[in-house]
Amino acid sequence: MSNLVSVSELSELLEAGAPVRVLDVRWRLDKPDGRAEYLDGHLPGAVYVDLGGELADHAVPDRGRHPLPTTADLERSARRWGLHDGDIVVAYDHARGLAAARAWWLLRRAGVDIRVLDGGLPAWVAAGGALETGEVTAPRGDVHLTDSIVGVIDIDEAAAFPRVGVLLDVRAPERYRGDVEPLDPIGGHIPGAVNLPTPVHLADDGTLRRPDELRATFAEAGVTEGTPVAVYCGSGITAAHTALALEEAGIEALVFPGSWSEWSTAPGRPVARGDAPSGAGPAE
């Protein structure tokens, strides 16, 4: 079953009265708080999800800019969103699914039936979908989340991963090369990592490319069915989107949540620069 839902499929679920909870995950690097835009217009019944406050735990030191929340904290948030056991959950955003995929990855690991709205808010609006304004406060849910470490690797496992599989760095090429680094103290990439920027998985309209197209793109990066693959990005957000694309291509992926924001601040970790996966140098 696909981890995506189309605008027409979501419309049918809502019209049929299915137990669907819609989550609005507005977040961008340049505008992490999307609440104001949410209040101006969102899918009917959608509850706002604060990515920085509810899909990350900033009390965790030395784990990058968006450390994973505990299962207990995520469960409290999910109950605030109105989730119940057995609900179908649909997450969307207004930025090509990058933030919604973070919610998908976290909740899927915790046992929730969650999908991402393919194309997000722009696709809904383009299809003539109705919008609501203002805050939606859902009746408190009672969902029970599963405590799971499946799908996660830590910094030491990320360092060793290129020896056993393909470690994908999904940031922009200039950040991978180390030409620029607008957010973290050091530019470059984890030695051995292969660059495959997130936008290559997206069609012009912001929807995810077809599974056969995704498989072809991953194969060019050395990832085929059966290849061990792990993914990282700047701080664990867009890595979840590539994990979603891999899942749609029929390939299971691991994610390094701390990503470059953890690696670049960890003392003594080597740094590779340039287009080649290798070429390590001492951390600065």
UniProtKB/TrEMBL annotation:
Protein name listed in UniProt: Sulfurtransferase
Region (Disordered): 264-284
A GO molecular function held by the record: thiosulfate-cyanide sulfurtransferase activity
Alphabetized UniProt keyword annotations: Repeat, Transferase
Domain Rhodanese: 16-133, 166-272
Pfam families reported in the protein's UniProt record: Rhodanese
Chain segments annotated as coiled-coil in the UniProt record: none
PROSITE patterns, per the entry: RHODANESE_1, RHODANESE_3
